[in-house]
Amino acid sequence: MPVPNHRDGCQTLMYPTHCPDCGDQVYFFSCSCGSRVYFDLNQPPWLPHEHRCWLYHIRIMREIYGYPEHLIVDIIEQEAKVRNLQVPPEIRAVLDTMTNFLPSKKLRIIEIPPTDSPKVTVGMITVVNRNINFFKKFDYPDNTMGRALLGKLVNDAYLELTIREGANEDNVCSEFICYMLLNEYLTLRIQHNAVVGVTLKPFQLPDGRYIWLIHEIAVL
Known about the structure:
Largest sheet: 5 strands, mixed, barrel
CATH class of the largest domain: Mainly Beta
CATH superfamily of the largest domain: Nucleic acid-binding proteins
Structural class: alpha+beta
Shape: globular
Mean pLDDT: 83
CATH architecture of the largest domain: Beta Barrel
Strand order of the largest sheet: 5-6-7-9-8
């Protein structure tokens, strides 16, 4: 297929899918030059989906640039004002949720389960890490022995989610760093910033440490 700004002989692939951020119908394009792009159309004028995907920009500001949530809200609102646009209601709902987690609140990160008991909670997905490497994460060798020790964690594809609860009566927010099968995440089409109910189950590593694995999840 003809593709703009690509040399002759470039091998390309394009197929319909859904945006991992907003869930809209898009076309994923990749090529042997290294490009990876979501388009709104599979033909000219080749409109990149990111040009109209508010949730994409929210995720990039949070995950890549590390902006605090109150600053992201200010940037989105200012950009909408400059472009004379109305923030869509669904994006406004996301921004309103983000303002519930201002820096004045204390944050408690619960990455290692304190017990071997399951945890049932409701919270917002604040971070999605699709590039988790369990060997580096837990200091295991990337060889046959390391794979045998980690078992299903490397036999199946996982991603890392950070789920933040609302503040309690002491104005403390708890964040749970947990892991979910990639196929299940894609099948459910869970969007970034979604509010979910989850059942977390501890999984014991060979050295005795525990991590959270998502046993059940539902978008609320």
